[in-house]
Amino acid sequence: MAGAALARYAPDGEGGVTRTIWLASYPKSGNTWFRMLVANLSARDGKPLDINDLPERGGIASARGPFDHLTLIDSGLLTHDEIDCLRPRVYEALARGAQDDEYDNPQNIPPVRFVKVHDAYTLTPKGEPLLAGRRGADGVILIVRDPRDVAPSLANHNGLSIDGAIALMNNPRAVYCAKPGRLDTQLRQKLPSWSGYLESWFDQSDVPLHLVRYEDMKADTVGTFRRALDFAGRPTSDEDIRRAVGYADFAELRRQEEDKGFNETPRRPGGLFFRRGEVGAWRDELAPEQARLIEAAHAPMMRRLGYELASEAPLARAG
Fold first, then answer.
1. What residues are paired with 190 via a beta bridge?
2. Mean pLDDT over residues 220-235, rounded?
3. Which of 107, 143, 198, 220 is the most exposed place for a label (fewest CB within 10 A)?
């Protein structure tokens, strides 16, 4: 039934179908900032776009609404595994040009559809890629961040202690949106530890991958953003890129959140989404033992990505 329902959304012919690029990241690694940069490429009235009203929103792959809309099934009646078995069909349909609730007007569809993904690259119980492989997307931009900076940001966003955030990052069986007796707005997402999440994307060969380090985005936002857009096949002028970078500056995003709020701000007094955004802030937010716990669990992946371990840092010369 789901297949028949999805088939009616497929467009006639291949002309004009938007390219789909996954924006994959472990939570709190810079995914939202990247999407703000993309959205501000279309700013034309001399001011940054409203952070709560972005014109180019591919949403998040785990959103429950598009799943229900395209399958014509109430996902609340299905198990997590049953949902996973249908998710590839949803992504295939969207890649073919199906409309979800965010794209009521086909004229608003951008040439490249960037879609946020927090799911690890896993297989369904039927043994096929959860995200439908090359039929679901044309490529993936994998955004990574030093896990020692991820931990305090994750703690702030999820209302955890830093020790609790580290435990989540080190848990190979961690999941999002799968608490018993609760229907989240998103579908279950598997997060097999910080390292396991990244390994799942590095090890897949279904879709081409482009790596973006948060630290490189901070050091050279224009250059890093340009290379990612080139990979995605998004035609963009240098002028538009420079303007988008200025409009999505962290200080501007923080100002808007403080002035008008942000729909992803943690729901508690004093909570902020755009909290610090600094590189290396972990040095004054983590206790030495907390940093050691992260490094002990993720040293191989940290080395692979060029993150220097404090335990291996050269000693300063005396005198």
1. 175
2. 96
3. 107
